[in-house]
Structures are given as structure tokens and as C-alpha cells.
């Protein structure tokens, strides 16, 4: 068995090794996808559950399945979605997680160090993101990603804004459910106020019983729809019989831009929320990492936009995006542990409690009970890279994104979008653009992606097709990647003109 494992790990490593001479492909070839598809077990084959043994299975996984996966981890030029890659130390830590398969659901300090490592990682993240004193973020946990963190954010917000309108000491949503608690509190509706909220916010609203229609877009203007209109927020907060959660896009997933201009607006919003009993949730999946960029004038605008986020009631952070740990990994912070336990507490299970400790049993502060030791890769990255190493990794991502934005601006063939009145220094890790020629624009995303050397996302901006570049990998090499991207763009435009 030991031999099999060693050989398997060796083969895995060799299958993902990337040579510096030849950049990894961003996409598998169609033949590789076809071959993988054909290799899948056929339910019509009566023998399909007979078991082929581990050696044959490993061969199948490495020879058929692996070549048909995309290059999001292996190529620094996979700029679709916001995927991130995996730092080597994070992959190593993740293999330790699998090898030990530690369940991290109950705080068992005489039996395993896992919950304490998890808490150490969460506290280090509070430090990295400069959110203030760890005591101000008593509610903290690892999740499966920003979607799960947004679910917790809306669940906590719902719990708190309704509880605030109930008599002191009364049961809240966690006990009574949304309908019962709202009836007792005299609340007709709970609304989620946002600007270009991520689609997962609407999904979260559905899951926690508020409904997708509870999410209300309050854009500051046509030009800057990612910005939240604070006057509209105040108008909404004044409505009688309606409780509100404010969800800040920080940053917004199509443009990377921030809902607020900085600490002054955030303080205003905080005052409004306090006056009207609203909850502020920050969806900072990738944007909050602007706070961890190097202290340098180059990044001061971004840092200003992200300043003040520490005044929120709850915060979503993604691990598997800019922090470059493997899927699936997210983080959730909220101020009071009691709000999180009101939502997530397992009842009547004294054996599940963490005992006297400031470390909560994860099962009472998160969605899952049994769960993976997903804190370990984050812990490893924070230890290995430190504040400075992470700052430099993030800076490389921003510099490449800005280089691409500038190249688009300078190009006769393409237009940089969402950039009216914006400076290049407003660019974080996302660049949105389109081709000037409509016919090229129609096929631009497919043309870029079919080359297998660069991968971008397709989206819409103001009703028209657009290309979205999201730079999120530690593998970024600013000079080389920028030169390559410029060349792809120029040659695509050239071929279109001559073709
Ligand atoms: C990616 C993203 C999400 C969803 O995150 P998952 O990690 O995919 O669950 C939510 N909000 C924002 C702003 C995002 O960028």
C-alpha cells in the first residue's frame, strides 16, 4: 500500500509539472474531452460496478480524466471567473488534510489540535486583512466558499435585525423560524440592499428564506452601478415594518470596483444602519484583499476604497480565490459569537459543546457538522508567505491587471469598459473590455479561449457582450504575461481585419 501511494503521488506530480519553456494550456483539447467522456463507465454495461482495482483506477484518472481538466491551476494566464490557483505549500497542506482526514466539528483540546490551528488561521487572517482586534470578531469560521459565507451573512443579519424588534430575551428566528419571529416582531418583509450584488447573494437570500426578490439594487448611477446610493439606502431604511440587511459589494465581481468610496461613506452607512437597526454585510470575496496589498502609493486608491470595511457586522472572504488555497475554502467573520450560534447551534447535544474556551465547536458556528480540516492550507500559506509574501503576490496580480487595462486603453481595436472617470489605479484584479468592431466582439471570447494560451470570461456590460479578465494566480509573471496578452490581442484584431 505504501508503495502504491508513493508511486501515485509521484505520478500526480509529474502529470501536473509545468515547464518554464512551454506555458501550460488553459483548456484541454476537444479530443481529450471526447476521450475522457468515452472512458466514463456506461450504465448499460452490466459490469460497471465490478471494481477495477486501484492500479487500473489510478491509470484511468491520470490518463483519461486529468488531461480533460482545464488549466486554471497550472496556467497563470487562466483569467476566467475568479478562480485563483494553488500555492505549492497550500497543495502540500491539503495533501496532509487528506492523509489525516481530520474531522473538525467539535473542539476536543485533549484529543486534537485541529480546532486551535483553525482558530490561529482565522486570527492571522484578521491580522492580514487589518480588521482590528480579534476580540471584535468573536464569530469566525471556515466555510466552503463565499457563497456559504454569504448565506451565513444573511442568516446572521436576519437573526439580528429581527431580534432587535422583539422583546428582550424573546426567542428569535433560530427558534421560531422567519415567519413566526416576523409575526411577533411586526415585520412585513426583510430586504437586502445592495449594488451589483453577486449572484450568490440572491441564492443566499433564497436559501435563508428571504427570497431572491428581497435583494434590491440601489445603484449610485448609470456610470457607476457598482456604487451604493446612500440616499436610496436611507429612504429604504425608513420604511415602516420592514427590516434591512445592507450587502456591500467589495469588490463587485464584473468590475472589481467597490460599493463605497472609502471610510467616510462607510462611517455614514454605519450611522444609518445603527439608527434604523440594519445589518451591514460585506461581500469581500476577493476585493477585501486590497487591504493586504503593499503599503505603497501605487495601491493607495484601492486601499482607500477598501478602508472602513472593518465597520461591518459581518464579512465574507474567499480562500480559494486570491489567497490561492485549493477548493473549497471560504471564511466568515461576524462580531458576536452569539448571533452565529443563534443561527447554527445544534440543540440538546451537551457532548458536542466545546466546553469552557473561547474556541467554539465549529459545528455550532457553521453550516456543516462534520467538516474537512480546510483551515490547514490557509494556515500554511499565512505562515509560509507572511504578510509581505502575500502582499507581493497580490501586487503581481494587480500589476498584470493594470498592464492589461492600459494596453486595452492604448489599443485602436478595443475599449476599456466601466472606466468612465476612472484612473488605471482604480483597477484591482479585474479588467472589462470589448472589441470596437461588433463582429469581432461577437466571437471575441471564443477566439481568445480557443487558442488554449489565454482564457477569459464572457459577460455582458450594459446589454452588450464583453470580455472579463480576472487575474488571481500566484503564477503571474507580470512582464511575460503582459507581453503575451498584448500579442494575443493584437494578432486577434489583425486576423479579424484581414480575415
Ligand atoms: C466568487 C464570488 C462569490 C461566490 O463565491 P464562491 O467562492 O464561488 O462560493 C461571491 N461574491 C463575490 C464578490 C465573488 O467574487
UniProtKB/TrEMBL annotation:
The modification N6-(pyridoxal phosphate)lysine is found at residue 321. Signal peptide: none annotated. Keywords: Lyase, Pyridoxal phosphate. SUPFAM superfamilies: PLP-dependent transferases. GO terms for biological process: carboxylic acid metabolic process. GO terms for cellular component: cytoplasm. InterPro entries: Aromatic_deC, PyrdxlP-dep_de-COase, PyrdxlP-dep_Trfase, PyrdxlP-dep_Trfase_major, PyrdxlP-dep_Trfase_small. Gene3D superfamilies: Aspartate Aminotransferase, domain 1, Type I PLP-dependent aspartate aminotransferase-like (Major domain). One of its GO terms (molecular function) is carboxy-lyase activity. Pfam families: Pyridoxal_deC. Its cofactor is pyridoxal 5'-phosphate. Belongs to the group II decarboxylase family. PANTHER family: DECARBOXYLASE, PUTATIVE (AFU_ORTHOLOGUE AFUA_2G04980)-RELATED, GROUP II PYRIDOXAL-5-PHOSPHATE DECARBOXYLASE. This is L-2,4-diaminobutyrate decarboxylase. It comes from Neoarthrinium moseri.
Amino acid at each position: 500500500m505504501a508503495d502504491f501511494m508513493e508511486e501515485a503521488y509521484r505520478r500526480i506530480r509529474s502529470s501536473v509539472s509545468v515547464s518554464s519553456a512551454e506555458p501550460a494550456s488553459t483548456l484541454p483539447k476537444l479530443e481529450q474531452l471526447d476521450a475522457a467522456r468515452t472512458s466514463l463507465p456506461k450504465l448499460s454495461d452490466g459490469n460497471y460496478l465490478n471494481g477495477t482495482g486501484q492500479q487500473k483506477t489510478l491509470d484511468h484518472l491520470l490518463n483519461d480524466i486529468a488531461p480533460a481538466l482545464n488549466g486554471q491551476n497550472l496556467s497563470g494566464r487562466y483569467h476566467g471567473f475568479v478562480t485563483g490557483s494553488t500555492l505549492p505549500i497550500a497543495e502540500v497542506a491539503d495533501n496532509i488534510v487528506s492523509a489525516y482526514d481530520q474531522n473538525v466539528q467539535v473542539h476536543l483540546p485533549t484529543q486534537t489540535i485541529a480546532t486551535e490551528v483553525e482558530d490561529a488561521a482565522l486570527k492571522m487572517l484578521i491580522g492580514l486583512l487589518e480588521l482590528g482586534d480579534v476580540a471584535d470578531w468573536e464569530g469566525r469560521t471556515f466555510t466552503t466558499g463565499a457563497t456559504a459565507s454569504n448565506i451565513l451573512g444573511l442568516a446572521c443579519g436576519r437573526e439580528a435585525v429581527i431580534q432587535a424588534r422583539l422583546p428582550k430575551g424573546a426567542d428569535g428566528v433560530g427558534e421560531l423560524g422567519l415567519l413566526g419571529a416576523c409575526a411577533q416582531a411586526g415585520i412585513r418583509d426583510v430586504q437586502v440592499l445592495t449594488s451589483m450584488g453577486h449572484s450568490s447573494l440572491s441564492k443566499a437570500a433564497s436559501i435563508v428564506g428571504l427570497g431572491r426578490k428581497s435583494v434590491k439594487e440601489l445603484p449610485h448611477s448609470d456610470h457607476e452601478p457598482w456604487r451604493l446610493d446612500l440616499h436610496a439606502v436611507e429612504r429604504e431604511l425608513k420604511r415602516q415594518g420592514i427590516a434591512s440587511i445592507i450587502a456591500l459589494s467589495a469588490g463587485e465581481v464584473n468590475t472589481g470596483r467597490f460599493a463605497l468610496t472609502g471610510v467616510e461613506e462607510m462611517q455614514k452607512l454605519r450611522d444609518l444602519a445603527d439608527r434604523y437597526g440594519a445589518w451591514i454585510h460585506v461581500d469581500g470575496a476577493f476585493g477585501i484583499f486590497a487591504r493586504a496589498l503593499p503599503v505603497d502609493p501605487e495601491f493607495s486608491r484601492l486601499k482607500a476604497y477598501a478602508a472602513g470595511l472593518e465597520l461591518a457586522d459581518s464579512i465574507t472572504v474567499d480562500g480559494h480565490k486570491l489567497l490561492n488555497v485549493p477548493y473549497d475554502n471560504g471564511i466568515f467573520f461576524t462580531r458576536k459569537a452569539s448571533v452565529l450560534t443563534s443561527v447554527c447551534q445544534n440543540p440538546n447535544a451537551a457532548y458536542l459543546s466545546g466546553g469552557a474556551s473561547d474556541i467554539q465547536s465549529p459545528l455550532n458556528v457553521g453550516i456543516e457538522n462534520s467538516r474537512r480540516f480546510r483551515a490547514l492550507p490557509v494556515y500554511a500559506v499565512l505562515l509560509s508567505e507572511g504578510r509581505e509574501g502575500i502582499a507581493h503576490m497580490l501586487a503581481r496580480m494587480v500589476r498584470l491587471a493594470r498592464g492589461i487595462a492600459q494596453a486595452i486603453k492604448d489599443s485602436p481595436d478595443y475599449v476599456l469598459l466601466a472606466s468612465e472617470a476612472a484612473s488605471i489605479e482604480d483597477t484591482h484584479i479585474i479588467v472589462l473590455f470589448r472589441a470596437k468592431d461588433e463582429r469581432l466582439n461577437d466571437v471575441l471570447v471564443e477566439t481568445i479561449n480557443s487558442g488554449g494560451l489565454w482564457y477569459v470570461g464572457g459577460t455582458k456590460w450594459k446589454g452588450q457582450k464583453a470580455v472579463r479578465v480576472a487575474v488571481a494566480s500566484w503564477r503571474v509573471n507580470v512582464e511575460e504575461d503582459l507581453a503575451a496578452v498584448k500579442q494575443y490581442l493584437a494578432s486577434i484584431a489583425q486576423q479579424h481585419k484581414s480575415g
